[in-house]
Amino acid sequence: MSEPAKQIGYLAAALKAPRIGEAAVRLAVQARDAGWTHEDYLIAILDREVAARNASGAQLRIRAAGFPARKTFEEFNFDHQPGIRRDDVTPLAAGHYLTEARNVVLLGPPGTGKTHVAIALGVAACHTGQRVLFATATDWVARLQDAHQRDRLPAELTKLRRYGLIIIDEVGYLPFEQDAANLFFQLVSSRYEHASLILTSNLPFARWGDVFGDQTVAAAMIDRSSTTPTSTPSKAAATGSNTSPTTPSPASGSAIRQTRKSNTWPNFQRASPAHYSTSVDTVAVARSPTVTGACWAGSRHG
């Protein structure tokens, strides 16, 4: 090794950036042969260091997020979900909703890929520099109950608000008792217009009152976590009446077509972008070939 290479290696180690030393030696010949300026050479070295650090940081954030498995959109089988296109999720994967503290809600029967999409969005967020946490709804409630018992709930909510994205999986698989529902609402409410949430649920909004045991709490939860629904869960659940799909007004910001029966899944149709509020990044509809129902993703502020 030449003396200059040794010096570069020593200085790079002193800076705790050994990759700079490696890149400097590797690029030196290329720079001389191509006639790079000193500035070009320095930019190339620093660019590789920054890229390596970003990649390393993303891996650390992915490991810290608590994903049950690592999933990406490259692994998602769009052929099995013909209603959802890559172009539909690309804007979400880019992470623009995170910078505006928007939420994403994924609804659909089991087997429609909700958790896969949620994790893929979480992994993508890690690559954009966001800190992410993933857990099921019951696990989040258990965490908040523990903090509440230790008189640390406000501090815990403040701590969680520092995460750019929190993913809450499996809302609705188990009903909540009133105290648990209130804690869950505090988590959602604390992030309203501050940081993003991704929620997945096997139940349509009209049945969230069954999950939280209180139609008022469910309505407030929906308002703070998702696109504005076409009707409150209390009205839909109480009457069970047939309701025709409606075109939302700009004021309502609604981004879904209402189910015809409150206890069934809507037969979603792809709507014109004009039907959606400007607060909605994208809406993607996915039908499972083996399960009657749909999985959709929408986002709004808060």
Give a structural overview.
This protein has twelve helices and six strands. It is elongated and about 75 Å long. Strands 2-3-4-1-6-5 form a six-stranded mixed sheet. It is of the alpha/beta class and 302 residues long. The protein has helices at 3-14, 18-34, 38-65, 86-93, 96-99, 114-127, 137-149, 153-161, 178-190, 208-212, 215-225, 233-239, and strands at residues 102-107, 132-136, 165-171, 196-201, 284-286, 295-301. Helices cover 47% and strands 11% of the residues. Mean pLDDT is 74; it is low at 227-302. Helix 1 (3-14) crosses helix 2 (18-34) and helix 2 packs antiparallel against helix 3. Strand 5 and strand 6 (295-301) form a beta hairpin. It folds into two domains: 3-59, no CATH class; 71-301, 3-Layer(aba) Sandwich (Rossmann fold).
Give me some keywords for this one.
302 residues, alpha/beta, Rossmann fold, 2 domains, 6 strands
The outline comes out as elongated
User: What name does CATH use for the topology of the largest domain?
Assistant: Rossmann fold
Radius of gyration: 24 Å
Low-confidence stretches: 227-302
Largest sheet: 6 strands, mixed
| Helix content range | 40-55%
Which strands sit side by side, in order, in the main sheet? 2-3-4-1-6-5
Roughly what is the average pLDDT, rounded to an integer? Answer: 74
Count of discrete domains: 2
Global structural class? alpha/beta
CATH homologous superfamily designation of the largest domain: P-loop containing nucleotide triphosphate hydrolases
What count of helical segments does DSSP give?
12
Count of individual beta strands: 6
SSE sequence, one letter per element: HHHHHEHEHHEHEHHHEE
Cα(first) to Cα(last) distance is 56 Å
CATH class of the largest domain: Alpha Beta
Query: Which architecture of the largest domain does the CATH hierarchy give at level 2?
Result: 3-Layer(aba) Sandwich
Strand content: 5-15%
